[in-house]
Amino acid sequence: MSSASTPHPDPVGNALSDYLAGQTAAELTVHSNVTEDESLAVRYFFRTLWEMPELERTALDECRGRVLDLGAGAGCHTLELQQRGFTVKAVDASPGAVATMQQRGVLEVACHDLLHLPEPGDQPFDTILMMMNGLGLVGSLDGLEQFLMQARAQLAPNGQILATSSDISYLFEDEDGALVLNLNGPYYGEVEYRFSYQNREGAPFGWLFADPTIVQDYAEAAGYDVEFLAEDDQQQFLVRLTLRS
Q1: In whole angstroms, what is the distance from residue 11 CA to residue 233 CA?
Q2: What is the pTM of this model?
Q3: What digits encode the pLDDT tens for the residues 119-148?
Q4: Residue 113: how many CA atoms within 13 Å on its side-chain side?
Q5: Is residue 194 part of a domain?
């Protein structure tokens, strides 16, 4: 990062707003503590159904009832579900993302942190949707445990969470394919990220890449049945967590 970088509280939101205003070549830079910096084209947040990965299209087909789209970004999944006749509430922690979704026609949208969602009142959700490695929004293993317990209050009886996650253990393999992990350190899937946009950077945040075993263990302990629905060739998977009655 350049020393000239200045604090930028909402780089994703600002990038989405610029894209919507016509800057279609806008790019975010993604910084993490496990990989080299990467560029992310902002247009990816505006993808259509047939530009979405198969895991996401499968998840949309598995949605039912009233849907809560967490980490909704520019609202591509919410808008597709609205077109299908679903009632959807889109939530994102980025004020700019929320404004973008409102401009794009998302009918019900709110700005909230994942772990501080308001009670749904008399309208619980049948489906919680978490795409783009969306389970990572919980930030850590402690966050995963906290979220799974809080989600119980958001879900209707027999409600479901549809989420994608990834196993990134391959990043820690040596030349022979053996895992090289610090067993006394934090879980290898707990990653620190930071976005920057136009040489201005956002605050660092935790992101969790939970492997299938972790997801199953934590979900079952929190009272969910676990079903793995699909996996792609990049070790990303789609899981359904169904709240036990």
Answers
A1: 30
A2: 0.91
A3: 877 789 999 999 999 999 999 999 999 999
A4: 8
A5: no
